[in-house]
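Final report, Chapter 2: Outcomes

The project's central promise was a pipeline that accepts a single protein chain and returns its three-dimensional structure in a standardized token representation, suitable for archiving and comparison. That pipeline is now operational. To close this chapter, we reproduce one record exactly as it appears in the project archive, with the input sequence first and the structure output second.
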Amino acid sequence: MVIWGRNPILEALRSGKSLEKILVAHDSRPPKELLLLAKRVGVKVQRVSRAKVEELAGTKKTQGVIALLSPVRYVSPQELFEDVLGSKSFFIALDHITDPQNVGSLLRTCEVFGGRGALLPKDRAAPVNEVVVKSSAGAVFHLKLSKVSNLSNYLKEFSKMGGWVFAVERGGRDIRELEPALPCCLILGSEGEGVSKKLLSLADEVLSIPMEGRVSSLNVGVAGAVAMWEIYRRRDFPNV
């Protein structure tokens, strides 16, 4: 959902609505109060062309500023972690995945296999928008989603709280050898770069999906589904 105009966006910020980001036209000067409030509540402000602002709003009457309103309510990382630890389940951390179809697919799989939610980066990632909601088949409304500025800091916190952190990436241990290790987090990397070196370094273990075909990789949505199934079946059917 897109809202535009200075006063509507100010009121959205004041009311605590979940905003994905605020886009400001290069030739516009939004009120200082709007910028300060956005910074205070952690909403990113991005400069773009006026044409882009008007294209997204579908009108020229934007006053040079629009906001992308999230269709879901975000929770704190601590709320997500406590839920996962208490239920001895898992969540996924999406390392700058930019395709909303992939994000929606991964969230749908997470919910289907009993995952509790996802940790999402604020920058360089697909926003949770209508495309994500649709491709998740509505699963986003049954998960705890948390947006953070630094994935590594919060994954370290989860680890200190007693959770396991696994990265799903090539070159690691065969995921079929994993003993049930819950509660845990599965880190899934971006479409082009995979899991970043920084996140790989803090993982308890790097897990890889064995492959035999001539194609050397899987789409992140498919790889994530395989990894989550493996966690699920090891938890509920440890001898399978």
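Archive annotation: The first helix runs from residue 6 to 14.
This record, like all others produced under the grant, will remain available to the consortium after the project formally closes.
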